[in-house]
């Protein structure tokens, strides 16, 4: 049996027409900014034009569509890797006899989509969505990086559990999402959803597109903050 690399691709998570509409809105937008990394704008590390849409009412329809597409992929991911929930959180549920029993991978497998979705929403939350435009022959994110790191003031970046990317177009050369230790390149295909862990084990980079521009939507699935998970404890 081949060892899991925890990198999953879900084809056609967002339909091609919706992807094309997002690309056209990006091309027409005057709100795009130079792409940033954790330490600010460093085009030698990441060269893109970005638009964060989660706090923009005029992009609320796009954020909703992307989150719905990611939600379905997340449920599939949790079914394949239930430890993504139960290993870090040691979840418990009522045993029917007045006590509590820890959830197992088999318990997760037995949940229907509604129950699994409720559990996922209890433990996890969506991150801010960033649209990114990489120009052919010059754009890219060549720096090997991961998504999990401390950042003041509230260390929100340490809550990142999974990363996701939806590829909004294709038809260009290269431009893959390349994972260092897994020695794997994910080629962009319109509407495909990529989900992977955020830690250094999944160090990755975005290779430069050739022949045409590359457009993606990307964000993270975060743990709920401790105050929400555990209250005042």
TrEMBL record:
<dbReference type="GO" id="GO:0016491">
    <property type="term" value="F:oxidoreductase activity"/>
</dbReference>
<dbReference type="Pfam" id="PF13640">
    <property type="entry name" value="2OG-FeII_Oxy_3"/>
</dbReference>
<feature type="domain" description="Prolyl 4-hydroxylase alpha subunit Fe(2+) 2OG dioxygenase">
    <location>
        <begin position="132"/>
        <end position="221"/>
    </location>
</feature>
<keyword id="KW-0560">Oxidoreductase</keyword>
<protein>
    <submittedName>
        <fullName>2OG-Fe(II) oxygenase</fullName>
        <ecNumber>1.14.11.-</ecNumber>
    </submittedName>
</protein>
<dbReference type="InterPro" id="IPR044862">
    <property type="entry name" value="Pro_4_hyd_alph_FE2OG_OXY"/>
</dbReference>
